[in-house]
């Protein structure tokens, strides 16, 4: 069976792409499906909603096309080769949807290509009929031998994992450790800023590759789409699509967030694309692929994205601690940590975590496997460093998993196998030490692990905390979030209530922060609210929350602690001043 696609830019200003699909079938009837989701983005997307006018380009008597399910079409061609065409509408500016405009065209393959049911093993080909008005085409797919404008994948997993970008923007190239990189930056960004990004990115990928002991990729494509109100990334085997809002950039904090995003997506080309939980590949593209191990896939990646910035020098140690503090605070502010375990957060990602923008109560009932998974990974990393006297780290486990499961067994691993490999590499029973924070809704005592490298926590001066958040709607202040971890949980206040007054003062969009600042934590006040047209009076007791970063470096720690801290801060780099008594053997 052979499958070939031809793409036509068709009407980019109307966000339409035309796809022609040629199929040499091996049966009388061929069932064609469109995926319902994209690996790396764990939510059913119903991509069939944007597929229109599926028809033969040339029909014969007795041939027929019928849509038999929301995501399936039955093509009857009496076993003969057939060609169909269809239109794809793409105007959703995210990393996991199509976006076709006159500025550029980003083809997200799972949202674009019908494929023969149960035949993900086929080697699909794709050609462009017409690139106009674009000059360049970027993709991680390999060109078909002897062809200028045809690309071929070794199976549909690779095909769906290879976005295609048409643009007039020329790439910036750099290389690191034997891999060629293309960086395509979309958006109105000055040349000097583009140069800075590519220079910093080259340092990040080089640091990652060295520490991970090499990369299998000979080519990697970064697409960086800079436009208003964008944030997100999606990883692929030899590419990543990254979106970032350039407003306020290059403010150093925003800039580091951008580097973290790029660092995160690049580390995924090991962790999740190669080193992966068993449920995450090969995929069933029609239904949710459930796993309890997203704390490995996303949590460990989230730890490493910032940690690599620390190792590269993009973060100073204190800046790194400030970032870590924000993550700790996010969990402490939420009641979700006592409701949902890391495994539950992962397993239900499809319906809960990915729907959190539409669930203002999520912070009270759920946690992020990114944030908590990163804190767990940091704790594991520090514990291993301490117990092995700096000889081993979480990096060694990742290298071993890559070798053992991706390269040798060519499959994913179970949670039990993850811990077995960890034990083999470090000699430590990490399951015994950490499993309770994975399977139960229980706080990780991260301070205890930070203490191992002389990083301490002290209480900052408390600031007043109302326990609820408001947003402005047509000049009115509407309750948009309630923190059930705070004493406000005792008060009958609902999402959607209008907050009218605090004691006898009228609440207005411009003054509520200042009015609140006049109160002290522990004090009581009257709230005047409006709910469904009725005026209500409620009493509230104000809470407190930390006013600033509470993590600091103890310069008076014992020498052995300081030595371990130096290993943590400079992992993979031998340095005369920081060499610990134990010999380091990583980074080969
Ligand atoms: Zn990720």
Short description:
With 588 residues, the protein is α+β, with helices and mostly antiparallel strands.
Write structural notes for this entry:
By secondary structure, this protein is α+β, with helices and mostly antiparallel strands. It folds into four domains: 2-167, Immunoglobulin-like, CATH 2.60.40; 171-251, 2-Layer Sandwich (Zincin-like), CATH 3.30.2010; 270-445, Neutral Protease, domain 2, CATH 1.10.390.10; 462-546, Pdz3 Domain (Roll), CATH 2.30.42. The model is unreliable at 575-588 (pLDDT under 50). It is 28% helix and 27% strand. Strand 25 (498-502) and strand 26 form a beta hairpin. Bound molecules: zinc ion. Residues 258-376 form the Peptidase M61 catalytic domain.
What are the key terms here?
Peptidase_M61_catalytic, Zincin-like, alpha+beta, PDZ_sf, Neutral Protease, domain 2, Immunoglobulin-like, 588 residues, 6-stranded antiparallel sheet, globular, binds zinc ion, 30 strands, single chain
Given the C-alpha coordinates, what overall shape results?
globular
Write the CATH fold name of the largest domain.
Neutral Protease, domain 2
- In which order are the strands of the major sheet placed? 4-7-2-1-11-14-13
End-to-end distance, in Å? 44 Å
- Percent helix, as a range, is 25-40%
Bound molecules: zinc ion
Query: CATH first level of the largest domain: which class?
Result: Mainly Alpha
What is the level-2 CATH architecture name of the largest domain?
Answer: Orthogonal Bundle
Largest sheet: 7 strands, mixed
Structural class: alpha+beta
What is the mean predicted local confidence, pLDDT? 94
Question: What do we call the CATH homologous superfamily of the largest domain?
Answer: Neutral Protease Domain 2
Taking pLDDT < 50 over at least 5 consecutive residues as the criterion, the unreliable ranges are 575-588
The number of distinct β-strands equals 30
Domain Peptidase M61 N-terminal: 4-167
InterPro entries: PDZ_sf (IPR036034), Peptidase_M4/M1_CTD_sf (IPR027268), Peptidase_M61 (IPR024191), Peptidase_M61_catalytic (IPR007963), Peptidase_M61_N (IPR040756)
Domain Peptidase M61 catalytic: 258-376
Pfam family, one: Peptidase_M61
């Amino acid at each position: 069976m052979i499958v070939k696609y031809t793409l036509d830019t068709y009407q980019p200003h109307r966000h339409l792409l035309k796809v022609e699909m040629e199929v040499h079938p091996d049966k009388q009837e061929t069932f064609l499906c469109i995926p319902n989701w994209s690996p790396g983005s764990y939510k059913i997307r119903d991509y069939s909603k944007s597929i229109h006018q599926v028809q033969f380009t040339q029909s014969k008597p007795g041939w027929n096309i019928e849509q038999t399910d929301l995501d399936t079409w039955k093509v009857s061609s009496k076993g003969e080769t057939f060609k169909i065409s269809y239109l794809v509408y793409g105007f959703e500016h995210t990393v996991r949807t199509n976006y076709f405009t006159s500025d550029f065209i980003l083809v997200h393959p799972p949202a674009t290509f019908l494929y023969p049911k149960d035949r993900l093993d086929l080697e699909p080909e794709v050609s462009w009929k017409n690139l106009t008005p674009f000059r360049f085409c970027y993709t991680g797919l390999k060109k078909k031998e002897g062809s200028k404008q045809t690309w071929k994948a070794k199976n549909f997993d690779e095909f769906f994992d290879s976005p295609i970008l048409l643009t007039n923007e020329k790439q910036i190239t750099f290389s690191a450790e034997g891999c060629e990189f293309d960086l395509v930056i979309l958006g109105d960004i000055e040349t000097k800023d583009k140069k800075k990004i590519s220079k910093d990115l080259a340092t990040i990928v080089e640091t990652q590759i060295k520490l991970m002991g090499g990369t299998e990729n000979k080519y990697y494509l970064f697409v960086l789409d800079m436009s208003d109100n964008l944030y997100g990334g999606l990883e692929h085997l030899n590419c990543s699509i990254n979106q970032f809002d350039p407003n306020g950039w290059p403010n150093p904090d925003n800039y580091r967030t951008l580097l973290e995003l790029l660092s995160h997506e690049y580390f995924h080309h090991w962790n999740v694309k190669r080193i992966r939980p068993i449920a995450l590949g090969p995929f069933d593209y029609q239904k949710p692929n459930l796993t309890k191990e997203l704390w490995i896939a996303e949590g460990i990646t989230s730890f490493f994205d910032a940690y690599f910035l620390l190792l590269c020098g993009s973060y100073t140690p204190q800046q790194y601690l400030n970032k870590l503090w924000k993550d700790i605070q996010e969990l402490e502010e939420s009641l979700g940590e006592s409701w949902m375990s890391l495994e539950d957060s992962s397993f239900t990602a499809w319906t809960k975590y990915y729907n959190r923008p539409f669930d203002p109560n999520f912070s009270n009932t759920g946690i992020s496997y990114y944030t908590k998974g990163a804190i767990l990974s940091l704790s594991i990393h520090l514990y291993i460093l301490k117990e092995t006297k700096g000889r081993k780290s979480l990096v060694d486990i990742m290298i071993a998993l890559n070798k053992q499961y991706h390269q040798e067994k060519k499959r994913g691993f179970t949670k039990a196998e993850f811990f077995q490999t960890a034990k083999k590499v470090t000699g430590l029973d990490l399951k015994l030490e950490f499993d309770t924070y994975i399977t139960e809704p229980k706080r990780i005592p991260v301070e205890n692990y930070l203490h191992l490298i002389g990083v301490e926590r002290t209480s900052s001066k408390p600031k007043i905390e109302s326990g609820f958040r408001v947003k402005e709607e047509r000049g009115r202040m509407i309750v948009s979030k309630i923190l059930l971890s705070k004493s406000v949980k005792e008060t009958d206040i609902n999402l959607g209530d209008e907050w009218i007054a605090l004691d006898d003062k009228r609440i207005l969009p411009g003054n509520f922060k200042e009015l609140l600042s006049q109160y002290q934590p522990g004090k009581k006040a009257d709230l005047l609210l409006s709910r469904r047209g009725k005026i209500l009076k409620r009493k509230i007791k104000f809470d407190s929350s930390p006013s600033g970063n509470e993590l600091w470096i103890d310069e008076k720690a014992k020498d052995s602690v300081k030595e371990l801290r130096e290993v943590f801060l400079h992992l993979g780099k031998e340095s005369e001043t920081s060499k610990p008594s134990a010999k380091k053997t990583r980074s080969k």
